[in-house]
Amino acid sequence: MLLRSKRAFVCVSYLAKNIFCKKLFVYQMTVGNLEVDPSLIGKRSLATCTSPPTARRAKKPKLKKYKAKKVDPTSPLGVLQFEIDYLLREQNLKREDVCNDVSAILNDTSTVDGVVAKMYHRIVDKVKILKLSSNGDGLAIIENPVEKNKKQVVIVPFGLPGDLVNIKVFKTHPHHVESDLLSVTTPSSMRNDELISCNYFGKCSGCQFQFLEYDKQLELKRTTIQQAYKYFAPRLIEEGILPDIGSTFGSPLQFNYRTKLTPHFDVPRKVKTLEAIPALGFGQKGRPAWRAEASRCGGKGSILDIEECPIGTEIINKGMKNERKRFENEFTKYKKGATILLREDTTVLDSSKDTASQLKSDGSTDNEGNLTHIETENSESGQKLSKTCVTNTRQIVTEYIDGYTFQFSAGEFFQNNNSILPLVTKYVRENLRIPNSGPDDEHNLIDAYCGSGLFSICSSKGVNKVIGVEISADSVSFAERNAKANGIENCKFIVGKAEKLFESIDIPNDRTSVILDPPRKGCDDLFLKQLADYYPAKVVYISCNVHSQARDVEYFLKSTDRGKDYKVESIRGFDFFPQTHHVESVCVLSRK
Ligand SMILES: C[S@@+](CC[C@H](N)C(=O)[O-])C[C@H]1O[C@@H](n2cnc3c(N)ncnc32)[C@H](O)[C@@H]1O
After folding, report:
1. Is 517 labelled a binding residue?
2. Which positions bind S-adenosyl-L-methionine (predicted)?
3. What percent of the chain has pLDDT over 90?
4. Do 411 and 327 reside in the same domain of the chain?
């Protein structure tokens, strides 16, 4: 009866060192209005029982232990730890003020379904969003529902600083909780929901910023870079040796720019044959309720069923439509989940010839088996172009950038927003110049992490020698082919880890600039040490993870033998991914 009325007697067994002296405390609690001795919670887990304790010696319950996963500090979860610390400092709080009793939730063996979890995972009204994380989520401070002297740091996706919101907390971590945004009661001055152009925005994990004016997005990305250097290059900040972070370069296209999308689907384990078509699209971000439009779309699973993506290019969206149709007919063949590749492929058309005869034979086809293509024009050169959508990872894709032709395997790395690439390659080229050099002075380039040769080739004019190094043999073979196809003879490419470069380097360091464009995890210390020993005239470091870039720049300047001889000339962001939180950062280093 008591249980029905949502009242339970919760026994908190306080497992002190001396088990014989174990005291059993009985606390009466009401779900959502708990009266418990807070000093007990947090020390041991809560165990519930429906009958009063007897004199018999209770069996020592096995407690589940919370195991924190090791995270790379420059990964989103790692960066969040810095963001929490900074937020706490601003709010005059300490880590211990916001720690959650995760083991109490883990060991919630209540017969009244998850009593402890229910206390933590509740609706909270009128939450003021204080900050934005680098992941594009709102951050706020709320009361701890169990330990009344404590608070909680809460992550609110789609919450903007200044918003007053209602949320539902659904997951507890040691020093933060996750929530869904239920409604915005008072909007932030930054928020303009009328700008949202996608039905799935607010539910899909792809975009975070569609409700922001573009200038505001660029400003926020600059803040992300500033914060990243604060967290990961504190010595450089303390010494005041970093330049102001420049304004972020915008993307010429703010929608329809992504030349690659990878929708996916899941097949539940143990299902032998699928009976209904699974959702095909992108990951869902929690269970938000703040946008009625989004709530109606995409289904309820962890993968949203997505028909169209406004940041994808036109041909990618056509390809997505074709592949969804094909999936409708073929889904029963799949035993496991999979990812579908959609990659834009471009052909320059000879206007004197028939278009159909110039199209490549492979690519996404419509219901009737006809290759789907669109015809368009290069706004700069006026060339007629045909676009198709490639779905086979091994197929060769062509892109035209800066007047050069690039080919690569559809499944290998290539930048995803070709509208911004001419701006980026120009900026990199200009910043590679060695100060006080004349046009006839020797100038060489090293392109570490060169992929299929984008920066090597776009910077090769007027340069004596370019050496690219790249771990993927496939990408290197394309880099070689691309140099040849563009009539470039001064580029040489090496397969291997970036540091392999220094094994047999034959170009003078004083006349050499280095391009670094590593993957998200950044450069290895070994590579940075060898780079400093090589002592190049300039370094241009391009990064898709400004946090690992900041860490590497501090390491290079402060922990390598010759790093102290360098200064940071400039740091600027490039917005490769409008509407999302991502930002690319370019840092230029030169000798003092
Ligand atoms: C961000 S991509 C840049 C590629 C190229 N600069 C571009 O813009 O197309 C990073 C590249 O580094 C390569 N890579 C990853 N780890 C590497 C390593 N240890 N040494 C050399 N290359 C590596 C990847 O295969 C990938 O092509």
Report:
1. yes
2. 415, 449, 470, 517
3. 74
4. yes
